[in-house]
Design a protein that fits this description.
Belongs to the neutral sphingomyelinase family. Keywords: Hydrolase, Lipid metabolism, Magnesium, Membrane, Metal-binding, Sphingolipid metabolism, Transmembrane, Transmembrane helix. One of its GO terms (biological process) is sphingolipid metabolic process. The structure is a single chain. The chain is of the alpha+beta class and about 450 residues long. It has ten helices and twelve strands. Helix 4 links the parallel strand 7 (about 125-135) and strand 8. The radius of gyration is 25 Å and the shape is globular.
């Protein structure tokens, strides 16, 4: 096992119990492939069934003995990370907005979409923080502005987490299903504010953009453009009606591997460099002996080279207040004064566009809340009418009907009260906080740019 190379795989497993087709067969096939692989880190999404996690963990434990299954929401986040290196810490950050509890079919609110991460100590790099996430699904890149808001909130919160990790002196690798195409606003926020680099773009430079008159073949879309979802070659999306953007690329690139160096301490001649040398879409074939794919997404693997100084010496930061009592590679560094904001950051124009979506969602949430509370009031009035009216119908056969109607009205009233008042206020307050934060941040960026402009010769 080389410590100057790091290989990672990310895959959305589509593993929802009772809903995902051929789940058990596909999970078993995925486990077999992973057991025969030489990955150092594996990040999986939509692996919701704990028994499936245990099955995969047993299969890969020889090479990847360390694993974490992350819990979030009512049904679990579906996020899993396997590692060759000992896990020093594991955290999960549920996103503050994840859809509505009334949207049962989408299910994002119930699973608690989140950013999960592990921290491990690499013999050469030192601290490495690996993020695994699955952003809010509903609300496409081409939909109404208010539908984009929750995914934008996810992207902003994810970018802040990744940036903070780098400012603590850690290497950052971020992988998962981001449910967004590369040119979308959520991806711009993640790349620019967190300072993350797309490993696929680095290893596939100068990729031509297909024209509407000559779209790539499905095979070229995978090899050249990194398509991982909605591909005609996937058994679960073949024949599926596609959006214009998916038709243009013969699918969508929704799965990514990002990386960045630590922002503090500053890079020096003795600091190793994490450099992607190869990325490819994998698990594009059918499950052996079956007519279905491994998942409704393809997998994405990334191989990184770890460039070390020519003299072989490596600088791994040690704690500022205490001397290490063991190998410095396994010390948690403490950086009291991280580097200032990155020179490249989210543009004020991107923040303005984000604020437009969030403001539209804020107004939509307020209108929805008023509507739902009005339904609650109507249900209460109908309940009172049923209760009073039942005294005028002494015939016994009508009582069961009244009981069913009463139960239905009581359920609807309770649901509308919760959605319209409790959740409605939650969403409005969360949006208010993020809107104010982004407005402050936009002002700070503009002030910083003005200051830099005034100091320029």
């Amino acid at each position: 096992m080389s410590d100057t190379r790091l290989r990672l795989l990310t895959l959305n497993c589509w593993g929802l119990k009772y809903v995902s087709k051929h789940r058990k067969e596909r999970v078993a096939a995925i486990a077999d492939v992973l057991a025969a692989s030489d990955y150092d880190v594996i990040t999986l999404q939509e692996l919701w069934v704990f028994a499936d996690f245990e099955y995969v963990r047993a299969a890969v434990s020889k090479r990847l003995p360390y694993a974490k299954f992350f819990y979030s929401g009512a049904l679990g986040a579906g996020l899993v990370i396997f590692s060759r290196f000992p896990i020093l810490a594991a955290t999960i950050h549920p996103y503050s907005l994840n859809g509505s509890p009334i949207d049962v079919i989408a299910g994002d609110w119930f699973v608690g979409k989140a950013a999960a991460s592990i921290l491990f100590a690499h013999p050469v790099l030192g601290q490495v923080q690996v993020y695994n996430t699955h952003l809010f699904a509903k609300g496409g890149d081409e939909g109404a502005e208010y539908q984009k808001a929750h995914r934008l909130v996810n992207a902003w919160e994810f970018a802040k987490l990744a940036r903070q990790s780098a400012e603590l002196g850690r290497y950052v690798i971020a992988a998962g299903d981001f449910n967004s195409v590369p040119t979308s606003l959520p991806m711009s926020i993640i790349r620019d504010h967190a300072g993350l680099t797309d490993a696929w773009v680095v290893t596939h430079p100068n990729t031509p953009d297909p024209s509407p008159s000559s779209p790539p073949s499905p095979q070229d879309a995978i090899r050249t453009h990194g398509v991982t979802a909605d591909s005609p070659l996937n058994s679960y999306s073949a024949g599926k009606p596609l959006e214009p953007l998916a038709r243009k690329f013969q699918g969508k690139r929704l799965d990514y591997v990002f990386f960045r160096q630590p922002s503090s301490p500053p890079a020096s001649a003795h600091t190793p460099i994490l450099r992607p040398i190869d990325t490819r879409v994998v698990l594009t074939e059918r499950v052996p002996g079956s007519a279905f794919s491994f998942s409704d997404h393809f997998g994405l693997e990334a191989t990184f080279a770890i460039d070390v100084p020519q003299d072989g010496s490596v600088h791994v930061p040690a704690p500022a207040l205490a001397q290490p009592t063991h190998d410095a590679s396994y010390v948690l560094a403490s950086v009291a004064n991280p580097q200032p904001a990155l020179a490249k950051d989210v543009s004020p124009e991107a923040i303005t566009q984000t604020l437009l979506s969030l403001t539209a969602r804020y107004r939509y949430a307020q209108a929805q809340g008023r509507t739902q509370l009005s339904i609650f009031a109507v249900c209460i009035a109908l309940l009172l009418a049923v209760i009073i009216g039942s005294a005028w119908f002494p015939r016994s056969w009508i009582n069961p009907i009244f009981m069913v109607v009463t139960i239905a009205l009581a359920w609807l009233a309770t649901t509308m009260l919760y959605i319209g008042f409790v959740y409605g206020n939650w969403e409005v307050n969360a949006l208010t906080n993020i809107i104010e934060e982004l407005e402050l941040y936009r002002g700070a960026l503009e002030e910083q740019r003005r200051s830099q402009g005034s100091r320029s010769p």
